[in-house]
Structure prediction request, 98 residues.
Amino acid sequence: MKQIVIGRYREKQLMDDALNSERSELLAVYGRRRIGKTYLIREYLAKYIIFSVTGLSSDNRDAQLKNFMLKLQEINPKKITNNKIKDWIEAFYLLKII
Prediction:
């Protein structure tokens, strides 16, 4: 059974605005843990999500990049063959080509 997102009117409006914008948009969602940030995004934007990765709590940059690379490999293992991403510029380039 599909659940609906109740409330969160301001957050849903911000997501709608980003989706309907004529420009590229980056939407950062942050807040205390266990309040439904990931659920809100996954449910409200489900039909638009092609790639999704959740950051690692309290881990360093290298661990975050490794996590990102592993998620890219899950999506397209034939295109993402290197085992180490050196920086976020390379990470987002790889995301662009999958």
